[in-house]
Amino acid sequence: MFNPEILVELANTRMPYGKYKGIRLCHIPEPYLVWYHGKGFPTGKLGMQLATLYEIKLNGLEYLLTPLIKK
């Protein structure tokens, strides 16, 4: 069963390291996610979130995350 909280978390979690440290995962540019896809996503929860975000952006569905961003 799908848990909608996954999308809320995806819209509000910030990248913990690297070039985009501090940026919300949903705002990470698609080319960076494509690079990760080719390199291999990290293990654990962050890897799952980045892989999910890659699929969302690949299919043009990032607009679904916009209303979930907490101010």
Automatic annotation (TrEMBL):
One Pfam family named in its UniProt record: QSregVF_b
Protein name as annotated: DUF3820 family protein
Organism field: Rhinopithecimicrobium faecis
InterPro entries named in the record: QSregVF_b
Origin: domain of life: Bacteria
